[in-house]
Amino acid sequence: MQTDLIQEARRQAEICNACRYCEGYCSVFPALHRERAFSDGDITQLANLCHNCRGCYYACQYTAPHEFDLNLPRALAEVRQASWKDHAWPRGFAHLFDRSGVLMAGGLVLGFALIFALAQALRPDSGAGFYAYMSHGLMVTIFTPAFLLPLLAIAVSLRGYWRTVGGGPVRPGDIWGALRSAGRMKNLDGGHGDGCNFEDEDRFSQARRHFHQAVLYGFLLSFASTASGTVLHYAFGIEAPYGFFSLPKLLGVPGGLLLSVGCAGLAWLKLKADPELGAPAAWGGEMAFVLLLFAVAVSGLALYAATGTSAVAWLLPLHLGAVLTFFLLTPYSKMAHGFYRMAALTRDAAQNRAA
Amino acid sequence: MTAIPDSYDIAVIGGGNAALCAAITAAEAGARVLILETAPKPYRGGNSRHTRNFRCMHSGPLGPLVESYSEEEYFSDLMKVTGGKTDEHLARLAIRTSEDCLPWMEAHGVRFQPSLSGTLSLARTNAFFLGGGKGLVNAYYRTAEALGVEVLYEAAVTHLDLADDRIAQVTFTHAGEEKTVTPKSVVVASGGFQADTDWLARAWGPAARNFLIRGTPYNRGVVLSDLLDQGVEQVGDPTQCHAVAIDGRAPKFDGGIVTRLDCVPFSIVVNKEAQRFYDEGEDVWPKRYAIWGRLVAAQPDQVGYVIIDAKSLKLFMPSVFPPIEAATLPELAEKMGLPPDKLCATVDEFNAACGDPSGFHPTELDGVSTSGLTPPKTNWARPITEPPFYSYSLRTGVTFTYLGLKVDENAQCRIGDRPVTNLWAAGETMAGSILGQGYLAGFGMTIGTVFGRIAGKEAAAHAN
Ligand SMILES: Cc1cc2nc3c(=O)[nH]c(=O)nc-3n(C[C@H](O)[C@H](O)[C@H](O)COP(=O)(O)OP(=O)(O)OC[C@H]3O[C@@H](n4cnc5c(N)ncnc54)[C@H](O)[C@@H]3O)c2cc1C
Ligand code: SF4
Ligand code: SF4
Predict the structure, then answer these.
(1) What is the pTM of this model?
(2) What is the CATH number of the domain that holds B174?
(3) A122-136, A227-241, B105-119: which range is least confident on average?
């Protein structure tokens, strides 16, 4: 870990610990106030607990030009970003984080081209819906490893994170606590329920929380849609294409809509928010990630809308290319934050229980 | 000199809590309000941006406040700290109105949080602002601007022109120019004069140049002295101020809450000659917090040194700068610039006077005291023996001054035996009308909120 980033966050955390005015905003401060001295692991945990709601920046009497120069959201964002690189697995892939914007663009193009070429070369003789363009077997061959390998990488990373922050045995109750917190985006409600500061300086609004929730639930619904399709296919022998009143579509269409709206909203907010209150170097990658997710959602919806038309021939590889890029880069892009955030919230729940 | 063309009903001088409460109240009554704040936007809000809570009467659970806190209890708490030097009528007015302030504050954007960790003793009496005073100030600026209040930053008021018994014109500098405005009513809410070191030195003597100012550098008493010079009635005297002992490494201005030190009860405190000078264990800390400012001010070079050992390090809230640490006392003395042999002698003498420490209890008056020592340490007296040893330097940190404008229950200023017909004052700049000396935690924001709202209401009624 870059010691100067940790050291800067520690310097600020020590000031906060003497002040405590922001205690009610989020989970970071109660966790911070439990300690007197902060190990590198403590700082890493605080950083991953921080949701960058910025409440503690706009309320701080010590921000620049004051000589104490507080900017806790940024200090924690920098450590957070660095901690993901630190725990990336395989180690050699850590630097991908720095280039995730470019990689996403490249991945999208390459993924499209690859799938398009394969689909052309191995075009099935029969099949309905998009299986007319690409066989089920080919999709499974590509996507099973593209899904499982990143998950493995994330799992290894999280084990490392757990060690760094000194986490003990994991209890289901703590995971439940983390799920509840993430599900409500508790840490983006400002403690008072008015929301967070993001797009308009110190004005509290629910915009970011609601758009982020749309992304979260949209993503989960889309994922559930795919999962239900898999179950229908293998367990019941019911194959795609599915009609509108089928589980995959009833989950997938609202999921895709939520995801599209959420991503567009988050991208818009990001343009209005002050980049100096995050990790500025990560801004491009984060934006690219949001746009990639947007592309996944919109191309998925478009694909459904285009059922039966010739546009499927290019929409299918576009959508699958985007999904492929998304999966493969999950451990090395902003997507990783979801996993680390769950780990940090679980760890926090355990510490709250012990306190 | 440019005259501001717009015709404002009210000019509010200052941009802290009292000013904002006045401006919001007046704007809600339909007045056109201009706020003149001398600070640039990042530093707007004066001392109010450093606060954390206000003291609030309540007859049952209210917002974040538990149980109840009656007018009588509140008033008697106040009498204890002021030694009776209190204007009972105005104090009771502030206390009674405080209960109504909390919902008003919430309705105007302020959010509260439960008593902060380490301040449980205040959970019943003081309501804490979420995000502290700057959070409160931000919310009020948003509310005021939504009501059409105009705010000029870096607008330093230099003169109020008193003609007969009204303020005819307000002069201020802004963007390098001298400007004037002629509102129908004026509210002064520009704080005390503690940031004017020359003025402090005139009142206190040269020692005051070594004082640190805990809050804003912008409260220099310019408007206060301008009005007093023109015969507006004064209250209090310039030697009265609220001062505490803070970390000697704190910045000259604006160090705020994080520079406080809570370790005195577990320590011995010496001056630069390594001599003790007061009973460090007189009472539980927050109660004695305010006398140490004066005690340190009376020592040579206005400095003190807290000495503790390893067993006490975790008994108090951490502060912004880590203590200086050393393996031995002579080494610690060296690092602090104290005479080593004298420090060792003082500590030896203290240790020898300590009795049985087994009754030690950090949060209660435990009666663990020294015997035969002058000055004694009457509680928490445990020998300083366990390395490493730690030290903090102490300086006097001034919170605010008491000299101010005398107001009546309408927050109106007076000249001779009659009111100034269009001048009101609120907050620190008139707090001396209520408190002659001493201070009760959280009462400053109560005074500002109560009298700010009164001033805003009266000023608007006059203008309409
Ligand atoms: C570190 C610290 C912590 C404190 N904590 C608490 C607490 O928790 N609770 C509590 O009740 N009290 C607390 N106090 C006291 C409290 O800050 C004051 O009682 C209160 O803020 C006074 O409010 P005010 O509006 O009168 O003055 P201020 O908030 O100081 O506002 C004065 C304003 O006037 C402006 N001004 C000054 N001169 C001019 C001029 N010539 N022209 C134009 N504008 C001018 C200043 O820039 C400033 O905006 C604390 C004080 C300090 C220093
Ligand atoms: S961010 Fe600023 S106001 Fe908030 S706890 Fe830290 S030092 Fe205090
Ligand atoms: S940015 Fe928000 S979540 Fe992060 S520490 Fe500050 S208040 Fe907490």
Answers:
(1) 0.96
(2) 3.50.50.60
(3) A122-136
